[in-house]
Amino acid sequence: MLKLSYLNIRRAFQTVNFLLARVAGYRKDSSEAWAMIALPLSLAAVLVNSGRFMSIQPHSTLQQLLDKLETEVSAASVHGLWCGRLAAGDDYGSNDWWRYTLRVVGQEGDVQENLLSALKAVANFTDQHLQQDSFEFEPWLPAENVACSLRVSALSEWCQGFIEGLSAVLGKRLMAAPDDIKELLRDLLDIGEVDPDVAGDEEDEKQLLELTEFVKIAALNIWHEFANQHSVAAEEKTKPTLH
User: Fold this and answer.
1) 40, 93, 104, 214: which has the fewest C-beta neighbours closer than 10 Å?
2) DSSP states along 5-42
3) In order along the chain (243 residues), what is the average pLDDT of each group of 10 residues?
4) How far apart are CA 121 and CA 61, in angstroms?
5) What is the pTM of this model?
6) Cα dist. 218→12, 107, 163, 196, 203 in Å?
7) What domains does the chain contain, in order, with CATH numbers?
């Protein structure tokens, strides 16, 4: 059985209704976003496969790109890292974003331009998916036909990446977060330490599903807390002043 003795799932899920209500106010129609996202993600797939067709599956697309870089860092970890930085209000188009990403995956030297372009396309997909259709957002994990233990491990790595990305951008400002946000961050840290050694029975699958849903809602709530503040602050700076 998936052992989470140090994480009070019941307490965590008591906040879900509150979080859903909070997130609901930010939901936007995603039809236009999907139309814009499809082309760059298809391009990323083409670049990875040298023109061969592949079905678009975000986790596997990102994993194939990382495999090209010969890194041991997982797609779940990188997606978590990117979502954490986006949640902190960071811009995936900045040079600092890519310096940090490449350092994490052990690629501080030159990277092939077509491979970097493909990574940027997938990062764009991540950004648009998070902003345009909150309820469709999901942590990128291996497919359901992959062993439960590997998916548990991936969820753990996603949470670790999310916290790392958030902390890298916000630093000590996290200490000023509201208490409910700090509690969610502690929960994500706990999930990041979950033992992936599970049997993969029906109960394990049920708990993994519940944890994944909780991580999704927690990440969205954190994103709205920090990224929204960053957006408001940026708008205030650009407002004309009266003389």
Assistant:
1) 93
2) TTS-HHHHHHTHHHHHHHHHTT----HHHHHHHHHHHH
3) 47 43 39 34 42 57 93 96 95 90 88 89 88 77 94 97 96 92 95 91 92 93 82 47 47
4) 11
5) 0.77
6) 9, 30, 12, 21, 22
7) 28-228 (1.20.120.740)
